[in-house]
Design brief:
Elements: H1 5-15, H2 19-28, H3 33-50, E1 58-66, E2 69-77, H4 80-83, H5 86-102, H6 107-111, E3 114-116, E4 119-120, H7 121-132, E5 137-145, E6 148-153, E7 159-165, H8 171-184, H9 196-225, H10 236-244, H11 250-269, H12 273-291, E8 297-298, E9 301-305, H13 306-313, E10 319-326
Antiparallel strand pairs: 1-2, 2-5, 3-4, 6-7, 7-10, 8-9
Helix pairs in contact: 1-2, 2-3, 3-7, 5-7, 9-11, 9-12
């Protein structure tokens, strides 16, 4: 049957698919618009299946705030070219609008929320994959509820955050704190809210690093006492290359190996546990200062902490939670 240009244009407006895809779908569907739409959707599923194993390292981060509720969602794709496409950005925005309206609990629930034309978010994402030929995916979704909420999306749409407060604060203040979270990527609001497993891991790393430093100091002192430059023997490759260059004699090379082995073993076996723990706890305190929101230097005024800045605005105001997502941390 003859397919009119007006019919093709109508289907394109309904689906957003390319002109040729719309014409082919109408031909295959014998002019039936509902069937043609289904054909286009099925094509999207086929393309999505073919590209399922592709990485989505680009995309758009979108935030929505409605009263005491907020969502942060990211639509991911494969290339920056697609991420900057107006149609891609529009879909990300529509997904965010649907998310704040329905406020689903998690990403799986979000996929089932209707976005338009009785099409679910998941179906819309799949359809867009089919239309542009590049994998699309909901890369991140989170909700937040608090008495007052601020948000910030960086101008490149690659990173953003939503921040909840225990009470209303000035809009600029909420935005600045959200900017802080976006820029500095804290692990938690404060020391008390850092997950126990993160604290345990950081303390373990601090202990091992401290032990390694103490052993290294002892080895370097012993090498210097023997008249050997520690930088010439800090690895087996260096020992061999510096011996070949004549910077070390074979005797010095063998002596260095022996010193490194014996001093390392002896020092490691006799490290003062109390001292190691004290130094490690100091490293952990530095971690809390740099990685928790309240203790971080405020990006708008680095001589004060975020906690002090907020207290200067309202002594009773506190950050209660935040969500953040970035495509390139």
């Amino acid at each position: 049957m003859e397919i009119k240009a007006t019919d093709v244009a109508k289907l394109r407006k309904m689906t957003g698919a390319g002109m040729m895809d719309c014409k082919k779908a109408l031909v295959e569907a014998d002019g039936d618009f509902e069937k043609a739409q289904e054909i286009i959707r099925e094509k999207g599923k086929l393309v999505a299946a073919k590209r399922a194993d592709r990485e989505t390292t680009e995309g758009a981060v979108v935030a929505r705030v409605n009263g005491n509720k907020a969502i942060l969602v990211s639509l991911g794709c494969e290339t920056d070219f697609v991420a900057n496409n107006a149609e891609f950005k529009e879909l990300a925005s529509k997904i965010a609008d649907a998310a704040i309206a329905a406020f689903p609990a998690d990403v799986e629930a979000l996929k089932n929320v209707n976005i338009e034309y009785e099409m679910s978010v998941e179906e819309a994402v799949t359809e867009q994959t089919g239309k542009c030929g590049e994998k699309h995916v909901i890369a991140y979704y989170a909700t937040l509820e608090a008495p007052y909420i601020g948000s910030y999306i960086h101008m490149n749409n690659k990173v953003g955050a939503i921040v909840g407060f225990n009470k209303e604060v000035p809009a600029d203040t909420a935005k600045y704190i959200a900017m802080q979270v976006t820029a500095m990527n804290p692990v938690a609001v404060n020391e008390e809210s850092v997950p126990a497993d993160v604290v345990a891991t950081e303390l373990s790393v601090a202990v091992e690093k401290t032990k390694e430093e103490q052993v290294k100091k002892a080895v370097e002192a012993a090498l210097k006492k023997a008249g050997i430059n520690p930088t010439h023997v800090d690895s087996e490759d260096h020992i061999n290359s510096n011996t070949a260059k004549g910077w070390l004699t074979q005797e010095q090379a063998d002596q260095a190996r022996e010193i490194i082995k014996t001093v390392s073993e002896e020092k490691a076996a006799n490290l003062p546990e109390a001292m190691i723990q004290n130094i490690a706890k100091g490293r952990l305190a530095k971690f809390f200062k740099e990685q928790t929101l309240e203790c971080q230097a405020f990006i708008m005024e680095d001589k004060v902490t975020v906690k002090d800045y907020l207290a200067g605005i309202d002594k009773d105001a506190k950050v209660v939670s935040f969500r953040r997502f970035a495509f390139a941390d």
